[in-house]
Amino acid sequence: MPELKPEGIGRRSFLKTGAVAGAGILSSIGTLEALALPPTPSADLYTLSAQLAEQWLAALLKLQVTDAAQGLDYGGIRGPGDAGVPGRIAETIYPLLRAARRSQQSRYLDAAHLLFRWAENRVSQPDGSWLNEPQKGSWKGTTVFMAVALAEAVKNHGTVLDNQFKAALLDRLLKAGNFIYDTFTLEYGNINYPVAATYGLALLGEVLDVPRFRQKAQALAHGALGYFSPASNLLVGEGRPALQTSAKGCYPVDLGYNVEESLPALALYGHLVHDEEVLAAATRGLQAHLEFMLPDGGWDNSWGSRNYKWTYWGSRTSDGCQPAFALLAGRDPRFYKAALRNTQLLQHCTVGGLLTGGPHAAAHVPTSVHHTFCHLKALTTILDQPAAVAPDLRRVRLPREQAYGSRYVRDIATWLLAQGPYRATVTGYDCEYNTYRNGHASGGALSLLWHEKAGPLLAASMNAYQRFEAGNMPPDSAPPAPCLTPRVELRLGEELFMSISDLSAVPVVHDAAGQSTVTVVAKLVDRDQRSPPAGPVTCRLTYLFTADKVSLHFVAEPGPYDGQVRIVVPVIAAATERFTAQSDRRLQLAKRGATLFVSATQAFAPSPAPTSRVFNFVPGFEAVPLCFPGPEVTLELAVK
To answer: How far apart are the first and last CA of the chain?
Structure first.
């Protein structure tokens, strides 16, 4: 992709006032405002990435606070869904400098100056760190992401900087590098932080010419190679203790953080320093994680240890999978397709120029800029790297584009099912995130059901929406967001006992000709794994997958709570999709290009069928909750 030469760009002092700089930003949106993406996403990864990056950057520029009278927010970028300016917003300096070098327009430099000023005033710390949020006591580990963004900006686009601004950036990067060098170990935070530091320190070592940064980067990178799970080759450590297994032998793993943050950092590190051992490990890791990409580019993190930030296209505050897959596409042609499909999904989830928190989120919650500036960095990174050669996509199949029956991922006690056009996930994963309880689904939950024409049909949310990271998750509504995971449940006053909370349940899968059958025995338990006061309630779940339909059977065994147990199956349905009842036991959902038919052995409650939507932030879907008074029901789902 040709670059414009930097001659002719106006020099600016990074001490420019908001009155001048802000006027330049707001008055010259110009061609970016007029940008209209094609209705059908481009089949070229780099063309689409450039279009989407340009659109996102235009929206962010419009939101920059350029009035000095706004006080502490002056220079920052605050979206409609943000309580304040996000602490990491100055990472946008990287794509701003790229735009400045390509366009020769000083407004991008003006915006970068203001962002740097804001960061120095609001989140910069004497020890060289930056705070994740502009408040005392905030987490400092995200310093590594700011350092990478500013170092990339200087390395790739420093020719547009005047001497004063460049010196200020380099000085600040040295302080950040010292903080990372002194603070980060393989045990610092979750695994995404030390793995990100492999690339961060290597890059800082190159930009600043500090050999000790490069040496520690190498030590961290090779130490991280011991954090891939033995059976499934998944990167572990998204939770503590990082290498200790659960009762079922599971490791703390989160798909979103791995594919959007850690594995890209490892790939970038290996590429920067030409470390073949690291590159080979990153390739194997990406191939293992690719098993969880859906054919539409969505990431199936319905089971992950930190899936409280799952947004279907990835994770709420990580950067994106594109750098890893694009950079290593020459090693596996599926990687190019994965990067392209996910970028197409990002475009589909962009509303008003900003990346929303899930496919249906824009209708329910104002959009934070956090998703946008993080993923903008990822696209900027691949646009700054040599372009991968696109394979013949007609000959390249992602793992879940194949109807392979079933696959067991031992290190997370999760089954992947693929029969005909249906793709499903059933999980008994029992690693909870640190001391938190009732987060991701377990208990043999059918945590995802997807169809090649209709898309997502069922998708697990958190068992109970909890803001494990309050600054990085939107506040819940009133009443609380209902759980989207299919389940058997019992409510006693304020106490809720669910099959999907049972960490001890073990799904069993049997494959026969053209069908897969999953059976589960689970107990109704609360967040602390306790049974109801009058004694245990056992339920049996059976899921049958064929090329024609999916059958779900739920039954609660007789016990002290007969008549109080109910079965809930929320069906993913956007408000724009027409849901109609054909009878009190059969309904249909008109989706784009297909119709879903749902039939049950007992009447829906309320009758004839509910049609109002509920919404959950995880993973950003609307749904129609189908409810059945217990103790037993069979549902059939078929797409025509």
So the answer is: 43
**Which residues lie across from 293 on neighbouring strands?**
299
Mean pLDDT, residues 355-370: 96
Strands (E), 365-427: 405-409, 414-419, 422-427
For residues 604 and 552, give the distance between their C-alpha atoms in angstroms, rounded to a whole number.
15
For residue 379, which of 172, 169, 9, 91 has the smallest C-alpha distance?
91
Same structural domain for residues 371 and 223?
yes
Q: Residues 452, 353: one domain?
A: no
**Are residues 384 and 418 part of one domain?**
no
**Lookup result for tokens 């520029």:** 61
Contact 231, 410 (CB under 8 A): yes
455 found inside a domain:
yes
**What pLDDT does 471 receive?**
83
Q: What is the pLDDT of residue 36?
A: 32
Vertex 636: Cα angle to 630 and 638 (nearest 5): 155
Model confidence band, residue 523 (pLDDT cutoffs 50, 70, 90): very high
What's the pTM value of the predicted model, to 2 decimals? 0.92
State the pLDDT confidence band at 607, using cuts at 50, 70 and 90.
low
Cβ(64)–Cβ(22) below 8 Å: yes
CA torsion, ordered 190, 195, 198, 203, to nearest 10 deg: -90
- Chain CA centroid to CA 250, Å: 21
Q: Tell me: pLDDT of 23 over 90.
A: no
Contact 474, 370 (CB under 8 A): no
Q: Is the peptide bond before 532 cis (omega within 30 degrees of 0)?
A: no
Do residue 330 and residue 421 come from a single domain? no
CB 48 within 8 A of CB 337: no
β-sheet bridge partners, residue 488: 567
CATH of the domain at 152: 1.50.10.10
497 & 370 share domain: no
Q: Name residues whose C-beta falls within 8 Å of residue 7's C-beta, 6 or more positions apart in sequence.
A: none
The token pair that represents 43 in the structure block = 């089949």
Task: Report, as an integer, the average pLDDT of 239-246.
Answer: 94
Query: Does residue 260 sit in helix, strand or coil?
Result: helix
Co-location of 372 and 418 in the same domain: no
CA triple 427-316-155, angle to 5 deg: 125
Q: What is the pLDDT of residues 487-520, one digit of tens each?
A: 999 999 999 999 999 999 999 999 999 999 999 9
Q: How many domains does the chain divide into?
A: 2
Q: Distance between CA atoms of 91 and 96, rounded to whole angstroms?
A: 9
Cα 2 to Cα 301: distance, rounded to the nearest angstrom: 37
Over 50: is that where the pLDDT of 27 sits? no
Contact partners, residue 59, CB within 8 Å, separation at least 6: 352, 353, 354, 372
Q: Which of 395, 425, 448 is the C-terminal boundary of a domain? A: 395
DSSP state of 388: P
Look-up: residue for tokens 């798909």? Answer: 255
Q: What is the CA radius of gyration of the chain?
A: 25
How far apart CA 537 and CA 152 sit, in angstroms, is: 56
**Pair 300, 160 in one domain:** yes
**Full domain range(s) for residue 100:** 18-395
What is the pairing mode between strands 614-616 and 515-523?
A: unpaired
Domain co-membership, 65 together with 201:
yes
Q: Torsions phi, psi of 130, nearest 5?
A: -120, 145
